[in-house]
Amino acid sequence: MALKIGYVGLGALGSAIAPNVAAFAHENGLEPVVFWNRSENKFTAIKDQLNGGRYASDLADVVKDCNLVLACLANDQACEEVFGAMAEALKTSNSSEKVVFVNQSTIKPITANKLKDQIEEAGGSYLTGTVFGRPDAAKARKLVVALAGDKATKDKVKPLMEFIGRYTLDAGQDCANGAALKLMGNSIILGTMQLYSEAYALGDAIGMDPKVFHELHSTLFNSPVLLPYSDKISQGKFGHAGFTVENGLKDATYILSMGEELGHPVNLPTIERARNNLSTLKDEGLGHFDWSSIASTERKNAGLPPWREGTNDGKA
Predict the structure, then answer these.
(1) Domain shared by 80 and 190, yes or no
(2) Among 154, 173, 192, where does a domain finish?
(3) Are residues 17 and 166 in the same domain?
(4) Is residue 61 part of a domain?
(5) Annotated catalytic residue: which of 4, 182, 232, 237?
(6) What's CA 57's distance to the chain center, in Å?
(7) Which parts of the sequence belong to the 3-hydroxyisobutyrate dehydrogenase-like NAD-binding domain (predicted)?
């Protein structure tokens, strides 16, 4: 049976993924994608990129008209609200097709289990389909997708996942493990960024040219995921956020709570320090800055001004 795709959540990442989902539908002769977001203006802003995709006035319309629904939402609370509403809509739907839901959101493993149970009790199928990559990577179809859940269901959606990303990782059948994998991956990114921040602060304190230090990074550790953060820190420019302080603080909090919530508490001092730095920035009203701006707090710890000269307090 042909896919009829819905896409829910048009934040910074969702808005970058959505045009590629629409392109997949168009190139494969499928019906235009149905979109939903809390505020319609996010849809309007990218409407001309969506190959005739239409806006649904409510989530019930998405569930009624689609057999595959992707969601990219801000946090656990948003997921519980949206998936709860879609589960209720599913219970009253007259569709003869089973609806598959793929959750691209970064959430706690215990929340993934809760959502999976809700959707399955309502008669649908649930997959974790978290993605690694900033909005620019999403636009370029260079995401890494971690797909977890029932194998047969994953096989149905895999062509779409392979279209929107550069690699699709099979994360097994446990949706909670898929959610945990995303947080573990983000812990590596955040931890590395924290180490970058400390190393750059040391270099700045002793007079090392940050451009030279960044060149060393680009030579030794040329990762397309990590190198942009070294670049931002070396320049001290954080106003154009690929991933915000506020979102980073959410992820850091989830990472630190994950072990205890799953019965295996683990000490993560680097992530703890990064979380504290993110919290400080949010308290200073900088929650909209890129999360790599934690470098400014490490500069202060080194006795330096938080922002590099000529960067308009990091906004440049």
Answers:
(1) no
(2) 173
(3) yes
(4) yes
(5) 182
(6) 25
(7) 177-295
**Residue 308: pLDDT band by 50, 70, 90 thresholds?**
very high
What's the average model confidence in pLDDT over 227-246? 95
Distance between CA atoms of residues 220 and 198, nearest Å: 18
Q: How far apart are CA 60 and CA 69, in angstroms?
A: 12
- Does the predicted model carry a pTM greater than 0.85? yes
- The dihedrals phi and psi of 159, each to the nearest 5 degrees, come to -55, -40
The single-letter code of the amino acid at 82 is V
Measured between alpha carbons, how far is residue 2 from residues 59, 107, 121 in Å? Answer: 21, 30, 24
Q: Is 182 a catalytic residue?
A: yes
How many Å apart are CA 109 and CA 130, to the nearest integer? 12
SS3 readout for the chain: CCCCEEEECCCHHHHHHHHHHHHHHHHCCCCCCEEECCCHHHHHHHHHHCCCCEECCCHHHHHHHCCEEEECCCCHHHHHHHHHHHHHHHHCCCCCCCCEEEECCCCCHHHHHHHHHHHHHCCCEEEEEEEECCHHHHHCCCEEEEEECCHHHHHHHHHHHHHHEEEEEECCCCHHHHHHHHHHHHHHHHHHHHHHHHHHHHHHHHCCCHHHHHHHHHHHCCCCCCHHHHHHHHHCCCCCCCCEHHHHHHHHHHHHHHHHHCCCCCCCHHHHHHHHHHHHHHHCCCCCCEHHHHHHHHHHHCCCCCCCCCCCCCCC
**Tens digit of pLDDT for each residue in 142-184?**
999 999 999 999 999 999 999 999 999 999 999 999 999 999 9
What is the domain range of residue 271? 179-301
Counting Cα atoms < 13 Å in the Cβ hemisphere of 136 gives 7
Q: Are 156 and 187 in a shared domain? A: no
Instruction: Report CA dihedral (152, 150, 100, 1) to the nearest 10 degrees.
Output: 10
Percent residues over pLDDT 90 in the chain: 96
Indicate whether 46 and 90 sit together in one domain. Answer: yes
